[in-house]
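Write out this protein's structure.
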Amino acid sequence: MRKCYHTIGVLTALFVLLTLPAGAQDRQPVMSMDVTGQAVMSVAPNQAIITFTVETADAKAASAVKKNAQLADGVIRALKQKAEQDITLSTSGFHIQPVHERDKKTDASSSGFIPKAYRVSNSIVVKTGRIERIGELIDAAVAAGATRIGSLSFSRSDSDELQRQAAAMALANAIENAKVLAKAAGLNLKGITYIQFVPNMMQPGGMELALAEGEAVTPILPGQINVESYVNLTYEIAR
């Protein structure tokens, strides 16, 4: 059972502003106070996104493409089998690039090059909720023919709900800050005149990846995701 740890950081700014509306010098100045509330929720990720790349090369472009298709198909089959259908696959890129060499028939001082071979790369994006099997997915893909891992990231499928929870916590923190500061300064709060919400979802820290050797499974440590929110409030101060 995963645990969810919540921590709240406090960032407070207090400003007392005296403003005098133009053309109304006979009116009482308006006093206001600005405060900031912050909330940080540390949660375990429940989904991962990995990009695998299959690379092949051959003297003929058609042969390089055919070899790549066979390997890519094997990688896709291996991933689906290992993830037990809890997986979404998509293609993020497909490239054919010629590998050139200098044409020996031309003068050495010239810049004449001819294609020596063709390199084909096919990038497959994998999205899965099987966090506990990420290492096995990597090993299965590499064994089936994947030659490179372009990226590996973790996230939450309920990120919107977590942002709302963090926003509510940040608002409560800002209100409490305002009350504490107003009491300490001997001020009376009249009401909130302005609210600004600043969401921020951070990637998990401490993620580690190491290639497997022999029968060992590649260890992956996803760490925690920090869901952070700020709320800025402006209070009118009663005279």
